[in-house]
Amino acid sequence: MKLRPLQDRILVQRVEEETKTKGGIIIPDTAKEKPAEGKVVAVGNGKVADDGNRIALEIKVDDRILFGKYSGTEVKIEGEEYLIMREDDVLGVIE
Q: What is the pLDDT along the chain (95 residues), one digit of tens a residue?
C-alpha cells in the first residue's frame, strides 16, 4: 500500500477485539462495538507551525494507540478498512 497521510494525520488499522469474554461467553457480531485501539500504519510529516518550522509527530509507525470512539474518518484501501485521524485525536500510546 502506498499512502502517506498529510501534515499531522496518521493512518490507523483497528485491532480486532476478542470474540470471547474472560468467562468464556462468545460475543455475537451484532453486540460488538468497534474497537478504540489500533496499530499505526503510516504517519504524516508533521504540522507546520506559525513560524514556518515543521513540528514532528510523537507517534511512529507500528505504535499501538487508543483513540476516541468517533475519532477519524473511515476509509477503505485495497479491501482493508483504515482510519485517518489527526494526532490530536489519539488518547495514548500502549507500551
A: 678 888 889 999 988 765 655 666 766 655 556 668 899 999 988 888 889 888 888 899 999 999 988 888 999 988 888 999 998 889 999 88
> DSSP assignment, residue 83?
E
Reduced to 3 states, what is the DSSP secondary structure of residue 88?
helix
Using CA atoms of 25, 81, 75, 55 in order, give the dihedral in degrees to the nearest 10: 90
Sole residue written with cell 474518518: 73
Residue 91 burial (CB < 10 Å; 0-12/13-18/19+)? exposed
- Following DSSP, what letter does each residue of 10-65 receive, concatenated? EEEEEPPPPSB-TTSPBPPGGGPPPPSEEEEEEE-S-EEPTTSPEEPPS--TT-EE
- On whether the pTM is more than 0.70, the answer is yes
